[in-house]
Amino acid sequence: MLKKPKFNIKTTDLVEGIPGNWFLKHFAIVLLVVLMALCYISVRFDCITAMETVQHLTKRLEITRTEVQRERSTYMSSTCESSMQHMVDSMGLNLRIQERPPYKLSLP
After folding, report:
1. Which pLDDT belongs to residue 44?
2. Helix intervals (H) in the chain
């Protein structure tokens, strides 16, 4: 029966050409480099997702501002029409606001 060889990190090459003994000797530095790489990836991911959120919210803000301007314009227009209609009614001119704009006729 064949015996499995025991795994010994000191004599085994974990990476081709670099013995396991080197990893044990420089364990703190290797761990620090790996942690720094993971932190960099994490911070970069958070930054990218935050930038996408800012872009999305900026677009929504522009749309909302446009809608507010349109509603303000509609309100001011109806306020002006209502005050003009009140003035016309007080003078007794019997004029009304047309529901449709006038047609333009053209000869072919």
Report:
1. 97
2. 20-25, 27-91
